[in-house]
Amino acid sequence: MNKNSSNTMALAPNTSNKRETVCIFGTGDFGRALGHKMIQSGYPVVYGSRSTQISNLIPKDAEVLGHAEAAQKAAIIIIAIQRQHYNFLIPLAEVLRGKVLVDISNNLKLNQYPESNAEHLAQLLPGSKVVKAFNTVSAWALQSGTLDASRQVFVCGDDVEAKQMVMNIVRALGLTPLDKGSLLAAQEIENYPLQLFPMWKFPIFLSLGLTAFFFLYCVALDIIYTYIYENNDFSFFIAITIPNRVCPVMALILLALVYLPGIFAAIIQLYRGTKYRRFPDWLDKWMLCRKQLGLIALAFASLHVVFTLVTPMRAFASWRTGKGIISQASFVLNNKTEPLDHTNAWLSDSYLALGILGFFLFVLLGITSLPSVSNNVNWREFRFVQSKLGYLALILCTAHTLVYGGKWFLSPSAYKWYLPNIYMLSLIVPCAVLVVKFVLILPCVDKPLTQIRQGWERNPKYSK
Ligand code: NAP
C-alpha cells in the first residue's frame, strides 16, 4: 500500500464511530432529559410510549413508537418508568429477550421493597439482561448541564458485557461510570439518592446537643449567678461573650472526638490480640464520620477567631479599657507605679501564640481533607497530616486552653455554685485522649500494636 492511499484511509469517515440506536421507554421528565443528552452525544434515540403522538417536549430528532416496535430498533432499552408500572413489560417479554434493560428507577423510601427495583425487573423478565444505572443523576441536572455534583454514575449488573455497553454510553455522555459489581448492589445504589448527608447526622446532632448544653451552662454561671450574687446584669453576654466561650470549647472537644475512636480501636485490638475481628458498630460509625467531626470543629474554631477579633469593637471592652486607664491614673496621682506583671504577660502571650499555631494546623487539616487536595497526596502523606499534625493541633489547642485557665484552676472564685468553668470541662476529653495516646506510643505498647496491625495474632482462633 503506498503512502497516499494510507492517508486517504485516515481521512475517510470512520463509520464504526456511528452510535447505536438507544430505546427509551417512557417520555416523562427523566426519559426526555436523558434522550436529549443522548441525541447531543450522537445517539439515535427512539422512544417507546403509550402514545405515539409527538409533543413539543420530546427532543426533536427522536422517534416515538409503541413499546414493542421501539424495542425492536435497539439492543439497549432504558426503562424510564416508575417501578409500580413494570408489569406492563411482561407481555413484551419475547421482544425484550436478550436485550439490555437499564433500570434507572428510584424509590420514595429507603428499602421500600424487599428486593431492589432492578432485581424485580430481572425477575419479571428473566430473558433480558438488567443493568442498574443513572438513578443518582437527576433529570434537572441532565437538562441544565449542571452535573458537577452528580458526574458519577453507579452501574451494576450480572452480565459483564451488558454492563460494559451501558458504561460506554455513560462515558459517551461525559459522565463517569463506577462499577459497583453484580445486581445485588442495586439496593444500595437505589438508596443513595434517598440519603440526606448520612455521614453528617451524628456529628451535627452531637454538636447541637453539646452546644445547647454549654450555652445554657454559661448562661447559668455568667448571667444568672452574676445577677443573683453580684446584682450585675450581664445578659448582653448572650450575643458575643458566651458564644465566644462555647465555640472554642466545642472546637476542642470535637477535635478530641476525632482522635478518640482511634484510641478505642487501638485498645480493642490490643485486648483482642488481633485486627481480624470487626469493631463494634458504634465504633465503625464513629470512625466513618471523623472527617465531618473535624470540619465542624474547624467551623467552631473559625467562629472563635472571628468573635475574638471583634472584641476591640465592643462597648464592654472599651468600658473595661477605660476602667484600666482610670486605675493606672489613680496610681500615678498617688505617685505610685504599677509594674508590669511579667507572669501574666507571659501567660497571655503564650496563650495567644498557642491558639494561633493550633488554629493554623486546624486549617491545614481542613484543607487536606478536601477531596481535590487529598487526591493529590499519597496515603503516607495524608496520614502524616491527619494523624501526626492532627495530634500536634490537639496538643497546641489543649495547651492554649490550659494556659488560658492559668492560675484560675485552683482559685475558689472560678467555681461558681461549685461548678467548674466550661473551659475546664472542655479539657477532660482532650487530656484523656492525649494521656492514653502517650501510653500507646510507649515502645512496650506500640510494638505489639504495630505487630497486630501487620497481621500478627496472639490467639489465632479469633481469626476463624
Ligand atoms: P414521570 O415524569 O412520571 O414519567 C414516567 C413515564 O412513565 C411517563 O411519562 C409515561 O411515559 C410512563 N408511564 C406512566 N405510567 C405508565 C404505565 N401505567 N404504563 C406504562 N408507562 C407508564 O417520571 P420520571 O421523573 O421521568 O421518572 C421515571 C423514572 O426515572 C422513575 O423510575 C424515577 O425514579 C427515575 N428517575 C427520575 C429522576 C428524575 O430526576 N426525574 C432521576 C433519577 C431517576 P409515556 O406517557 O411515554 O408512556
UniProtKB/TrEMBL annotation:
Coiled coil: none annotated. Its main location: membrane. InterPro entries: Fe3_Rdtase_TM_dom, NAD(P)-bd_dom_sf, P5C_Rdtase_cat_N, STEAP_metalloreductase. It is a multi-pass membrane protein. Keywords: Copper, Endosome, FAD, Flavoprotein, Ion transport, Iron, Iron transport, Membrane, Metal-binding, Oxidoreductase, Transmembrane, Transmembrane helix, Transport. It comes from the Eukaryota. One of its GO terms (biological process) is copper ion import. The chain crosses the membrane at residues 204-229, 249-271, 292-310, 350-368, 389-410, 422-445. It holds the Pfam family Ferric_reduct. It is found in: Endosome membrane. It catalyses: 2 Fe(2+) + NADP(+) + H(+) = 2 Fe(3+) + NADPH; 2 Cu(+) + NADP(+) + H(+) = 2 Cu(2+) + NADPH. Gene3D superfamilies: NAD(P)-binding Rossmann-like Domain. Residues 249-397 form the Ferric oxidoreductase domain. One of its GO terms (cellular component) is endosome membrane. Belongs to the STEAP family. This is STEA4 Metalloreductase. The lineage of its organism: Eukaryota, Metazoa, Chordata, Craniata, Vertebrata.
